[in-house]
Amino acid sequence: MSEDDKNTEKKSEISINEKTIEILIARLIPTSQYFEVRFDNLEQKFDYKFEGLNYKFEGLNDKFKGLNDKFDQLSRSQENLKTDMNKRFEQVDKRFEQVDLKLDKILDRIDRRIDEGLRETRSQPFRLFTFAMTFSAFPWWACSGSCSTSFSLDIPLLKTTL
């Protein structure tokens, strides 16, 4: 074997002791300081993003408050409309009651007039009969001037003066 071969063998033979293992671990696995810096950076990024989200959610909360106010206004408007409609229906009911009373009065007057007309119609033949009997029994044309030549008849259909 030549010397070069021996040197390569020595180089390829590395003694593995604790120090070598620590060096390998330190080079292969980053230090905890590296992880701390990385986690701090991630935490800052997350904080920044969460602050942006919080800002957006606060904006949404403001919009929802505005919507709540609008819904409150809408419900108040509906309540006002409901009370106005109830008042109007009460007014319409009162008006119908008044119209009903007036109509009853008008119908009573019409009934009364019809009854009066029927009574007059029933009594008219009797009046005509009485007139005819009086006219035939008392010959007024035969009066010599002492009789009154003018008298009035109280018959609705024959309102004449003789």
Radius of gyration of CA atoms, rounded to a whole number: 62 Å
The portion of residues assigned to helices is over 70%
Number of helices: 3
| Sheet/helix structural class | mainly alpha
Q: What sequence of helices (H) and strands (E) makes up the elements? A: HHH
Give me the count of strands.
0
What is the rounded distance between the termini?
A: 182 Å
Principal-axes geometry comes out as rod-shaped
Mean pLDDT: 76
**Low-confidence sequence ranges:** none
Oligomer: single chain
Largest sheet: none
Strand content: under 5%
Folded structure, characterized:
This protein has 162 residues and is mainly α. The protein has 3 helices and no strands. It is rod-shaped and about 190 Å long. The model has no long low-confidence stretch (mean pLDDT 76).
Features:
single chain, 162 residues, mainly alpha, 78% helix, rod-shaped
List the helices and strands and how they pair.
Elements: H1 3-12, H2 18-28, H3 32-137
Task: Describe, in short, the structure shown.
With 162 residues, the protein is mostly helical. The protein contains 3 helices and no strands. It has helices at residues 3-12, 18-28, 32-137.
